[in-house]
Amino acid sequence: MGQFIQQLINGLTLGAVYGLIALGYTMVYGIIGMINFAHGDIYMVSAIISVTALTLMSALGISAVPLVLALVLIIAIAFTSVYGWAVERTAYRPLRNASRLAPLISAIGMSIFLQNMVQVTQGARVKPVPTLMPGGIELFTHAGFSVHLAYTQIMICVVTVVLMVAFTGLITRTSFGRQQRACEQDRTMASLLGIDVDKTISYTFMLGAALAAVAGVMVTVYYGVVDFSIGFVAGIKAFTAAVLGGVGSLPGAMLGGVLIGLIESYWSAYLSPEYKDVATFVILILVLMFRPSGLLGRPEVEKV
Description:
This protein has 304 residues and is mainly alpha-helical. Helix content is 73%, strand content 6%. Strands 1-4 form a two-stranded antiparallel sheet. Strands 2-3 form a two-stranded antiparallel ribbon. Helix 2 runs parallel beside helix 4.
């Protein structure tokens, strides 16, 4: 029972990270109908930026943990949002009226470019960072096994819930959310009604990148190591989470992320950790075969 609850905590923490990345996939797909396969590497770039920002804070002598985390989040979100805007401006906007295959290839090319740019500029070695939030809460001990809830896990879960509520409110209750939903339904008609479609799409990419930035900072603080290759696997798993929950559904993206995190955690604990990625991709295949719209997604209706 102790190990079961410990893996539940670990899975929820990991799922919260996947859910944040999956929200970016879902937002972009909802407005342009395409998957941004460079999104995982945007998350990787944010982790590298957070390492740089943490090093800068240390050099400046800033040691208060809340202040350090706030400054690192602000820096990572600002720079990563610019990367998100650049991806949309260079890889998607010029090909918006092309066949659906062209933006897909362009996004994969942007993903490879970001990976190699970070590898060349920052080096291929793993980049460690000091522990910012050591310790945690020991919930209980059962049969010699202690169930531990780390402060970083609490922070990740709380931040994820707050962001989920905030972005749901942004999409459903604000003028920008109405513009975004209008562009999702019919970009031509939205443009005729005075909505700046290009600006709305750019802001959506920037918001998705900001969510990835938060996930990158959380992962950096939680694990303490990052490298240039973390974006690909995390991006594919977050994509799986978005598909599982229903691409285009914000609650579905978070639900899919949590489910993927729990499956990985329990699979690693009770079966074989070497095959946890295989389990994730098998789930992706099964969902695409038997429920392509996902758990909370709605089947697309073809306009005639």
